[in-house]
# Entry
Amino acid sequence: MSDIPKPSLRGNERIPPWRDGRIIGILLQIVFVILLVLSLNWLFTNIGNNLDALGAGQFSCKEGGTSYRCAFDFLSGEAQFPISESVISYDPNTDSFWRAIGIGVLNTAKVAVFGIILTTILGTFTGIARLSSNWLIRNIAKWYIDLMRNTPLLLQLFFLYFVIFLVSLPSVNDVQPILGLPIFISQRGMNYPSLVPMASFATWAAFIVLGIVQAQLIWVILGRREEQTGQEASRGRWAILSFLVVVLIGWFVAGNNADTEAALVSRASRVREIGDIPALIERRLGINDLSNIENALATGALTPEAVDEAALKICTINESASEINLTAQLRQANVPFDVTRSDRPDQAIATYAEGGCEIFVANRATLAAERDLLENSADQLIVPLPETPVRVSVPKLEGFNFVGGSKLTLEFAAILLGLVLYTGAFVAEIVRAGILSVSKGQTEAARALGLSETQRLRLVVLPQALRVIIPPLTSQYLNLTKNSSLAAAVLFPDLYRNINTIINQSGRPIQPIVIMALIYLSISLFISFFLNWYNSKIALVER
Amino acid sequence: MTTLPQKQTRFNFLPEDIQVQLNRFITEQITRSWILTLWVLAITGFTLATVINRVQAAPLSTILVLVVWLVTVTLVVVNELRHKHNALSLWLKNNMYNNITNAQISLLIVLGIIAAVFAFYNYAWANASFVAIPAADYRAELISADGREYCFTMGGIDTAVSTTEIVTDPTERCFATADLAAPPSNLAVGQEASSFCFDQKPDDPENGITCFASTAENPDLFTVDREFTGANWGAVEANLVTMMIFRFNRNETWRIWAVIILLAVLFVPTTFVYRASFKNKRLRQLLTYAWLASPLLIYLFLRGVEPVPFEVDGFSSVTQGIWDNTFAWTGFIEELEEAGLITYVNGRPLERVGDGALQPISTWTQIRATLSGNQYLLGVLGLLLFGGLTLLLNRRFPQKEHEGELVRLGRMVLRIFLIITAVFALLALLQVFSMLIGSITYTRELPINGVPQEVTQPVFSSLDPDVNWGGFLLTIIITIFAIVVSFPIGLLMALGRRSKIRGIPAWLTYGAAIVIAVVGFTQSTPAMVEAARSNLELVAAYWPILILVLAYAFQRAFNGNVLAAFSTLYIEFVRGVPLITVLFGSIILFPILLPPGVEILNTWRVLWAVALFAAAYLAENVRGGLQAIPNGQYEAADSLGFNAYQKYRLIILPQALRVVIPAIVGQFIGLFKDTTLVAIIGMFDVLGVANAIAAQEDWLGVRREPYIFLALLYFVGSALMTAYSRRLEKQTGLGER
# Structure
């Protein structure tokens, strides 16, 4: 015991700095930072030399001269290249590169938002199907998931777009409405009816907001009553009912009080209000009821040419809401019509004056102004055009294009479908893992407490499963957003494709790439920031 | 319920509680709520409608399925009523028929599957053509009016061949003649066609098979018997080699076989040598070294070495060439002259600086020239020098536990210099090695411009990657390069991100930041404020504030730890942008970021971009694994006196990597699939080649079948990797306590 060797390191011996691990560590870090700064300097020098060699004034200023300050000046110039689809208006000759970049961001956002919603739905259903009691459903889901996860996304996109869409869809002239509804899927995309807000939409929107506020009020009040009396007051149903009542009232109020649009007709046509038009057409065609037109055409009592001749000829200004207003009402009444569109009011009134059309719909103020310019203005009547807050706009084939309604381009459909099918498979696996992670004891306990199946899922399984599902789910959302850059392969103008075009058009490679990287980075950081916040909110707090 | 045994006579086969069971069935399954009743009615109606529809479309299969379904349902119901299931009926009941809805859905699904299988069979086999003839021809099978078999000669109309001449070469094939004015695009059955071809038919002089140059000679003789409306598998067969290796030099394909054989030879022992039960350690070591050396060999095979810059005429000239090109003292003035940095003015050498002015040669330039001209020689000499010094030092001061500080300092300094010179010496070794390899030649017969000639060429002649590496070969190269390179980088990034080393002290960071900020404020801000043209530029003029904010953020977030900061920023930046952006950026930015005149091939840019991208994702996966190791492991390793390398290699990483094997393999499978993205930026991986095939005149628009083939290829590859990962999990004992 007594011959334990004494420790050889004496008490306060200092380690000399040149071999002190900590100091060497700090020195190495400083050296690293210096090397980093030097290499950045080298990179920037190279950039400078190379860009000078490229010539063409990479950093030319708007007002002349070159300077690093003016690096992004060229983006204010005219874009001069077409973008096939955009959420906001775009004119290649007047809009700047910045606007093109903005359109790219909006398109990417559109794909991302719809993609996230649809992929969540598809993934949840497939994940639940993976757990179904039916062996066939289970295995079909398994094969779908395996197929999607083991083939590259780009291959799936190419297959979808070039093999299925462009080849198998009918051309515009051969397309048939689906199931009798005016939905047309052709090589030009999918045209479907859409809701167009009219002038009175603002009033109705105010009523909707009022309805929401009031539904909240009822929710809170009934909630308090529930707490006090302990009885179920079905506040959800009352809230929704009151909301619907308010919205309905608002619909009629807004519609009846609106008086912004009108129609110009000649006194001789004996049309005093819009409701007189069906009678007019019936008289022209010589039939009793406009709904018999199809029968008459089928039996041969009427020829298509006669119908076309008797159709109501309408003049309107391009992209005006009054056209949709009138045509929606005429469609309801089964009146055949023919629309002539002009770019400006004076062109439209000229057509009307020549007799090219018999009714001219536009803004009431415009109509009054134009009527006064006519010679026989005393013979012209301004007839009010009733409206409702929204009208349905239905696509109709005119020439080689569809007019009216909304359009879903093939490219958007291809990228959306491809992304949703691909990411949905990953989400399905995540959902399955989440539901399986809830131990069976929870289910048994819930059943022992007498909870119904719905209550068990909603109150016991889902909250625990969500905790396991959310983190990988959000990283899949991130993947979907980043994979949307593959839209360039199917010719959808997303951010990457627009940046590519800008680089080619402007000949400046660095600035657009920096912008693109920054935009993608901020989108990703935003989503992962949200993920971390939500994760910390629902995470299990452990001791 | 009675306790007497049931008498299962023929007339008493109904169980006692059948009434109860039926009641319960009806209540639970049908009448429990009105929604359920509606649903059951709806689905029954839908099933009936579908069955009736399918019976009309494909009666035999539908009736068969229906009969099987009815029989199995009856079986399950009867067994359920009798409370006596056998294995089959129990499985059926649990998995397919557990309620009315499920039973009907099962029937519908089976009918759907049968319809799909039939459709696919028709597409992929019954109506498919396997003729590897370009799509410009028409895929149709013809019959002749007179019942005899005809074949057609190859090429256009050979007017020299008379129509009754019998062709005896069985390899002749057919394709449409070129002089058809308006070829029909779709041949209808029974329609008379004037020119087409069909599957290769061997000629048969004995049976009177006559050959024509074209059917235009006898248009009335042939009609279309059958069109191949299904898959065009011939497209895949004809383009298979193209899809695999694209433009690889067809005279050098032996190299690809060599690589495959090498990998096979290394792979076979790997399956059993790394098990715990394998006792021969030397063999295991040998195999590990072989695997470590294999990338070099594969590189030599697939890329080769640049041509040897000297005439090969025996060993002496090889050594002379090695000396001249590697070790000779080139002299620094000539070196600078070659680089264009020096011009002679009035006989005096002057150096050209950045903005074109001339000045006397600076010391730094002299040092640079010396080092750059002779790094190999310096390396070898330095190695000898410092190696010798180290040996001397060790002889004079043998390693003791407590030494004087001077000796320790000397040892450390020598070690540093030794490592630096060893690196250069290693480069010299590689240079020598590549020159020796490049001097091995062989002679063979190659067709040059169609004429076979005797050519002497190096065995490992250089192959330009941009041209030669294409198709599936490129896909595999990118995948393997990215996997191999991203692993160490990602590992280091993960370790760096979690490192707890002492960072730069706060006073240093803030001090440096303040100095830079002050200098910036005084020097640059006033000028920028004056030149500002918009509010944005005005704000940008006050960039020193940003420096201070960055310093504060750096100190606050990472405690001054530069390693953690760099790793974290790298990982988060690379993970935040899509791969296509990184690839696109690397292709466009590489030429701009490198000095003028330095070129990097497109292929290398892409390889490194994918590798660095994968490293960031791998770092996150490994970090997850490192977090799963309890702290006690780290502490135990430290208490045992392990240094960092030993700790990670022996204790931490084996556990961490085992935990994240599924995630890592998933990452690698994703990498394998993401290599297709290079097709968007214009490189020809297997998907790019498929698109290029569809753009050719011969195979215009034929995309479906190549894409299906590619999907199969990727599916098989991914499935193999998944299976290997599962085996790896089992081998390393993942999940076992």
Observations:
- DSSP finds 28 helices and nine strands in chain B.
- Confidence is low (pLDDT under 50) at residues 152-203, 207-216 of chain B.
- The radius of gyration of chain B is 38 Å.
